[in-house]
């Protein structure tokens, strides 16, 4: 019988796969707990091994589930990768806060959010993986384009009442990704050791100009 966390059963759902990985003492092999464990394991695996050396089997082993369950929830390795990156950004929570009540201060809010994500060690690790992998692997670059440029910045662009809003959002993205590359990946000094508040203070006006000035 398939475990059902709702207690109601799902007569149309697929039969849960038999788990062959290391069992968890506290969580069932299906349901939200398993999905969360898979995502957390994926973030760790991609961060430590990079995109190329990470496998669905390795993620499943780290999460204590069968690899079929990873495919059930996320499909391909690329889709697991995208979901792991989304876990770092949490766009559903962040976009309303970044947009706020209007475009005043948008550049600062965007810069503060972006730098804040990179300054957090938990979210920085998978982002380092995607930045490094995107330079050499098209699948990783596709995830970066699809998530950062589409799911995040196009949402911002939709709120802008200016010509070429999407182009402007991509210019803002290029500025922020350049900072991420130099500060966190290459670790170029003095940028790598600069106070985050100083970076936000200097970058925010440029982002504001990209996004709002006609």
Automatic annotation (TrEMBL):
Alphabetical list of PANTHER family matching this protein: HTH-TYPE TRANSCRIPTIONAL REGULATOR RUTR (PTHR30055), TRANSCRIPTIONAL REGULATORY PROTEIN (PTHR30055:SF235)
Region (Disordered): 1-34
Protein name in UniProt: Transcriptional regulator, TetR family
Superkingdom of the organism of origin: Bacteria
GO terms assigned for molecular function: DNA-binding transcription factor activity; transcription cis-regulatory region binding
DNA-binding region listed in the record: 55-74
Keyword annotations of the record: DNA-binding
Species per Swiss-Prot/TrEMBL record: Streptomyces atratus
Residue ranges of every copy of the HTH tetR-type domain listed in the record: 32-92
């Amino acid at each position: 019988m398939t475990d059902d966390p709702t207690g109601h059963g799902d007569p149309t759902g697929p039969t849960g796969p038999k788990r062959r990985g290391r069992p968890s003492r506290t969580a069932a092999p299906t349901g939200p707990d398993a999905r969360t464990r898979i995502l957390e394991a994926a973030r760790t695996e991609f961060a430590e091994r990079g995109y190329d050396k990470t496998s669905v089997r390795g993620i499943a082993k780290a999460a204590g589930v069968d690899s079929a369950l990873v495919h059930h929830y996320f499909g391909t390795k690329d889709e697991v990768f995208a979901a792991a990156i989304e876990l770092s950004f949490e766009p559903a929570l962040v976009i309303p806060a970044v947009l706020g009540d209007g475009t005043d201060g948008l550049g600062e809010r965007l810069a503060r959010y972006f730098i804040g994500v990179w300054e957090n060690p938990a979210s920085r690790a998978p982002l380092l993986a995607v930045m490094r992998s995107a330079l050499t692997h098209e699948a990783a670059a596709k995830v970066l384009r699809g998530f950062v440029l589409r799911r995040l910045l196009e949402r911002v662009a939709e709120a802008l009442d200016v010509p070429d809003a999407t182009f402007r959002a991509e210019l803002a993205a290029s500025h922020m990704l350049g900072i991420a590359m130099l500060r966190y990946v290459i670790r170029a000094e003095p940028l790598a050791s600069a106070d985050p508040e100083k970076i936000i203070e200097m970058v925010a006006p440029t982002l504001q100009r990209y996004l709002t000035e006609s």
